[in-house]
Design a protein that fits this description.
413 residues; 12 helices
C-alpha cells in the first residue's frame, strides 16, 4: 500500500506512481523578443532569484535573447550540485512575473492544473524523494565539475508518487505554502531588524571628527570623550595561544574559541570541551562575567561580552579585556566595536595576507568614544533589545524549518 506515514484523515486512497513527463511539459521558449532582462539563478534556499540579488552582480551574458524565458508558476531544474542540493534543485518561479535562465536549465510547466496541483509539486521538490530517480539516470559521468550529466528526456522519465485525488494534493500544497509563508514572514522581520540595527549603529555613535552622535536619547546632551582601551581596562592580553588538541574531550569544560564569537555574540554552534587538567592550567587566564573578548586571528575584530553562565571559562586565540579602571558598560563597547567606523580602524591595524591577525598591544592604543555611564547603559539596552528580538525571530525560523523538514519526510511517499 503506497501511502505516506502522515496524511490528512479524510484521505485514504493509495498514492500512484506517475512519470514526470506525464504531468508536466517541457518549456523551451527563447527570450528572442527580449521580453525579460532579469537573469535568474536557482538557490536551494531562496528558489529562482535575481542573480544581482543573490550574487551581488550579474553573471549572465549581456545578450540574453538566447536564454529560456520562464513565466511565473513555471519550474526550472538546475543540474548544478551543492551541499544543500546534492542532485541539483528544482524550483518554481514565484518572485517575479518572468525571468530568463541559462539553457543548461530544464524548464517545465504543469500540463493540467485540474490533475496536478502546482503547490504540491513545488513542495515535492523540496523533499529528497526525487533524488533516487535522478541518481539512477545520472549514474554514468554523473558529476562533471559540479554539473550533473543528465538529458532532459531522462529527467522527464523519472517517476514520482502523488495522490490520485487533486483535493489531497491541494490540501498538502496549501499546508506547506502556509508554513513557507510563516517562515518568510520571520525571515523578512529578521532582515528588517538587521537593517535597523545597522542603520542605528551608524547614527547612535559619533562619526569621525564629531564629539556627539547624530541620534541620541533627548536627556543626554554632553559631549562624548575619547579614551584609549588601555585607559579603560587594566588588563588587555591574549588568551591561551597554541594547540589544545590533545586536551579536547567530548564533555568537560566549555572552551571559548574564535569560532564561538561572531557579530557581537557568543554562539555554541561549534562547541569544544577540554578536560579538567587543561582547564585548571589556564586558571590565570579564565574569562569572567562582563569581560570583553575580541577575535585575534581569522575573522578579526568580532567581539562579545562574557555572560554569567560562562563565568570562569577558558579561552583560545582571543584578546581579553579585563579589570576595568572605571565604571564601564561592556555591552556599549561591544556595540561601538560593531560600527563601520570601528571596523575600518581595526582593519587598518590588522596584519597578514592569507590569515588576518591583530595584536593585543595594538588594541591597547585603540581609541573609543565614551559618553556618561548612564548613556552607555541606555544605548547598550537599546541594541540588546534589538539583538534579543533578532534571536527570537531566528529561533522561530529555525524551529519552523525543522518542522517543515520533519513533515516533508512523513507526508510524502
Amino acid at each position: 500500500m503506497a501511502v505516506p506515514k502522515l496524511r490528512f484523515p479524510e484521505f485514504t486512497d493509495d498514492w500512484e506512481q506517475r512519470k514526470l513527463g506525464d504531468i508536466v511539459e517541457r518549456v523551451t521558449r527563447k527570450n528572442t523578443n527580449l521580453e525579460s532582462d532579469l537573469p535568474l539563478t536557482i538557490s536551494a534556499q531562496y528558489g529562482l532569484i535575481d542573480q544581482n540579488e543573490f550574487f551581488d552582480k550579474r553573471v549572465a551574458s549581456k545578450d540574453v535573447s538566447g536564454y529560456y524565458l520562464v513565466n511565473n508558476g513555471e519550474f526550472a531544474y538546475n543540474k548544478s550540485t551543492s551541499n544543500d542540493a546534492p542532485w541539483g534543485a528544482v524550483k518554481r518561479l514565484d518572485r517575479y512575473e518572468k525571468g530568463v535562465v541559462s539553457t543548461l536549465y530544464i524548464v517545465f510547466g504543469i500540463r493540467d492544473s485540474h490533475q496536478t496541483d502546482s503547490d504540491f509539486l513545488a513542495t515535492y521538490y523540496d523533499t529528497n524523494r526525487w533524488y533516487s530517480g535522478v541518481q539512477a539516470v545520472a549514474a554514468e559521468g554523473a558529476r562533471n565539475h559540479g554539473l550533473l550529466n543528465i538529458a532532459a528526456s531522462d529527467f522527464f522519465d523519472t517517476t514520482l508518487m502523488l495522490p490520485a485525488s487533486i483535493e489531497e494534493q491541494q490540501r498538502i500544497g496549501a499546508f506547506f505554502k502556509s508554513l513557507d509563508n510563516a517562515i518568510t514572514l520571520h525571515q523578512r522581520k529578521l532582515e528588517d531588524l538587521r537593517i535597523l540595527k545597522k542603520s542605528m549603529l551608524q547614527k547612535m555613535f559619533p562619526s569621525e571628527g564629531n564629539s556627539v552622535p547624530e541620534v541620541r536619547f533627548p536627556e543626554f546632551t554632553a559631549a562624548w570623550e575619547q579614551r584609549k582601551l588601555s585607559q579603560i581596562y587594566s588588563t588587555i592580553r591574549n588568551a591561551f595561544v597554541g594547540t589544545a588538541t590533545p586536551y579536547y574531550v567530548d564533555d568537560g569544560h566549555f572552551y571559548l574559541e574564535s569560532n564561538n564569537v561572531k557579530d557581537g555574540q557568543i554562539n555554541h554552534n561549534t562547541e569544544v570541551f577540554i578536560n579538567d587538567e587543561f582547564y585548571k592550567k589556564q586558571k590565570g587566564k579564565w574569562l569572567h562575567t562582563g569581560d570583553l573578548v575580541m577575535v585575534q586571528s581569522g575573522h578579526v575584530g568580532h567581539t562579545a561580552v562574557i555572560p554569567p553562565e560562562l563565568d570562569n571559562t577558558a579561552a583560545h586565540a582571543l584578546i581579553m579585556f579585563q579589570h576595568p579602571k572605571q565604571e564601564i558598560e561592556p555591552y556599549f563597547l561591544n556595540y561601538e566595536l560593531q560600527t563601520l567606523s570601528a571596523k575600518k580602524k581595526i582593519a587598518d591595524i590588522t596584519t597578514g595576507n592569507t590569515i588576518k591577525h591583530i595584536l593585543a598591544s595594538e588594541m591597547q592604543e585603540f581609541v573609543m568614544d565614551l559618553p556618561s555611564i548612564l548613556e552607555q547603559r541606555r544605548i547598550a539596552a537599546f541594541f540588546r533589545q534589538i539583538d534579543n528580538t533578532i534571536t527570537l525571530h531566528q529561533r522561530k525560523c529555525d524551529d519552523l524549518q525543522k518542522l517543515k523538514k520533519a513533515l516533508l519526510q512523513q507526508m510524502f511517499c
